[in-house]
Automatic annotation (TrEMBL):
GO terms for molecular function: AP-2 adaptor complex binding; clathrin heavy chain binding; cobalamin binding; insulin receptor binding; protein transporter activity. It comes from Aquila chrysaetos chrysaetos. Belongs to the LIMR family. LMBRD1 subfamily. This is Lysosomal cobalamin transport escort protein LMBD1. Residues 259-286 form a coiled coil. GO terms for cellular component: clathrin-coated endocytic vesicle; endoplasmic reticulum membrane; lysosomal membrane; plasma membrane. The keyword Disulfide bond does not apply. One of its GO terms (biological process) is protein localization to lysosome. The chain crosses the membrane at residues 12-30, 42-63, 96-120, 140-162, 187-211, 303-322, 364-394, 406-426, 483-507. It is a multi-pass membrane protein. InterPro entries: LMBD1_LysCbl_Transport, LMBR1-like_membr_prot.
Length: 538
């Protein structure tokens, strides 16, 4: 008992340290990218909180797998303390942990983030009455709340399996709907809403994560161009633009006015010259900064990390392809959501995890690494591409210059991507996500000359054929397959994810090195924005 209490205390201490680390990372990340001139307390707190919720939610899957595995010994027997009541309590705790965090995500996506976004938009247009800004923000947020309410109602009152009774009256059908709603305590409604958001998260993962998985490692391997070389090229460009300006302005020395075409050219050249001079100031600051020297010193380490990340990305993609191919060949098809129990075609990740299970906790380290890699490549994809609405670019994510609205969008996208992460991991290693490292006992009858000699028990890894009372299914698996039509959408989304990753890999390979000040100087920037980045290059 004392040992169990000690393990519980250690677990809570580790959880507290992990939570503190997540909050510190979120604060540093948001402060690094937000604009100093446009920063607001409420938008900063919202972004930090939403990002923290996304990271904490991504950690639920490894915790869920660990808990169901920890209740059993390596020989397939349950531990002394893991009786039926304790197992049920642990399962319920994990399930309510999911619903709590997912409820917070619903609150952020449909209420808090939209309200803060519209409040800030209204504040930019009118610095007047705060009350009117709040009213306007609430008016626009009401639309998001309506969408959330519709999703909850659909999930609550549209049961998956309605008994087909020809003699049942309309009132009996309505009564059945309310009985099912009451029996599930509204959890099915929440599950439907989260699954709907997960489909949106799937689209975001296809757009940003698939590209980030190829762009991040290749950018680390290729590195950036030299600040000194870029500065030399920039100086030559400045001289060329100045000479061009002088040639045009020399036409009016005798008092003749410039033509409209020449005036437009002069205006464009002057804007170009201002941009080049801002680039000159940035390049000079970067060339002298200690951070640049430090990055040059750890350049070999960046290459190693880039190679490691590209290996993980290829492992991820090959495993996803084989898993989807397995579903295409052996599942019951669209009507079943392409769901299969167990695996018929093995993949590298499914082969690697059983090997790592023999040495605790290597399998949990691997699954946690994949989850965090998924999150950080999503961040990289959003940072490189910016925030888009179809073909319209809404915002850019730039260090020290990101507007509050862009940060709120970034956090909302990450929240949606995190919801899709669990299904992606399940697609990679379905059996492991279902049962973790659990084993169960199988009776083996040894015979001599056709007569039973003795009865022995051997341990076997849990699978779909295992007895329900011997293997505990993770709450993640039960949550993922509540609605078959969402599973079918995820299946097709996986094929799109693979295609976008391969396209992004080809594009990233063909592109040259990034500029050392990539995305930090644009023609629409003001000269005041130079002060925001100076703090990073001192």
């Amino acid at each position: 008992m004392a040992a169990a209490a000690s393990e519980l205390l250690t677990g809570w201490c580790l959880f507290g340290l992990a939570l503190l680390a997540i909050l510190i990372f979120c604060w540093v990340y948001v402060r690094k990218y937000q604009s100093r001139r446009e920063s607001e307390v409420i938008s900063t707190i919202t972004a930090i909180f939403a990002l923290a919720v996304a990271l904490i939610s991504s950690a639920l899957l490894p915790v869920d797998i660990f808990l169901v595995s920890y209740m059993k010994n390596q020989n397939g027997t349950f531990k002394d303390w893991a009786d039926a009541n304790v197992s049920r309590q642990i399962e319920d705790t994990v399930l309510y942990g999911y619903y709590t965090l997912y409820s917070i995500i619903l609150f952020c996506v449909f209420l808090w983030i939209p309200f803060v976004y519209f409040y800030y938009e209204e504040k930019e247009e009118d610095d007047g009455n705060t009350c009117s800004q709040v009213k306007t923000a609430l008016k626009y947020t009401l639309g998001f709340i309506t969408i959330c309410a519709v999703l909850l109602l659909i999930g609550a009152f549209v049961p998956l399996n309605i008994p087909n009774k020809k003699n049942s009256t309309e009132w009996e059908k309505v009564k059945l709907l309310f009985e099912e709603f009451g029996s599930s305590h509204g959890l099915t409604a929440l599950s439907f809403s989260i699954s709907s958001l997960t489909v949106i998260g799937m689209l975001a993962a296809i757009t940003y994560t698939a590209y980030g998985m190829s762009a991040l490692p290749l950018n680390l391997i290729k590195g950036t161009t030299s600040a000194a070389y870029e500065r030399l090229e920039n100086t030559e460009d400045i001289e060329e633009v100045e000479q061009h300006l002088l040639r045009i302005k020399s036409k009016c020395r005798d008092g003749r006015p410039l033509s409209s075409r020449d005036r437009r050219t002069v205006q464009q050249l002057e804007e170009r010259l201002r941009t080049l001079r801002r680039r000159e100031r940035h390049l000079e600051s970067i060339e002298k900064s200690w951070w640049t020297k430090f990055c040059e010193a750890i350049r070999p380490l960046k290459v190693v990390w880039g190679v490691f990340f590209i290996i993980v990305a290829l492992l991820f993609t090959v495993s996803l392809f084989l898993s989807n191919l397995d579903k295409a060949l052996h599942s019951a098809g669209f009507d079943s959501g392409f769901i299969i129990l167990g695996t018929n075609l093995t993949n590298p990740l499914n082969m690697l995890l059983p090997v790592l299970q023999t040495v605790f906790p290597l399998d949990y380290i691997l699954i946690t690494t994949i989850v965090m890699y998924f999150i950080f490549t999503s961040m990289a994809g959003i940072r490189n591409m910016g925030i888009w609405f179809f073909w319209i670019r809404l915002y850019k994510i730039r260090r020290g210059k990101t507007r509050p609205q862009a940060l709120l969008f970034l956090c909302m996208i990450l929240l949606l991507i995190v919801l899709h992460t669990s299904y992606m991991i399940y697609s990679l290693a379905p059996q492991y996500v279902m049962y973790g490292s659990q084993k169960y006992l199988v009776q083996s009858n040894k015979t001599t000359d056709g007569q039973p000699k003795n009865v022995t028990f051997v341990s076997k890894e849990c699978d779909a054929d295992a007895p329900e009372d011997q293997c505990i299914v993770t709450r993640t698996y039960l949550f993922l397959h509540k609605f078959w039509f969402f599973s079918a959408a995820y299946y097709f989304g996986n094929w799109a994810f693979i295609a976008v990753f391969l396209i992004g890999l080809i594009v990233s390979c063909c592109k040259g090195k990034k500029s050392v000040i990539e995305g930090e100087v644009d023609e629409d920037d003001s000269d005041m924005s130079d002060d925001e980045l100076s703090v990073y290059y001192r």
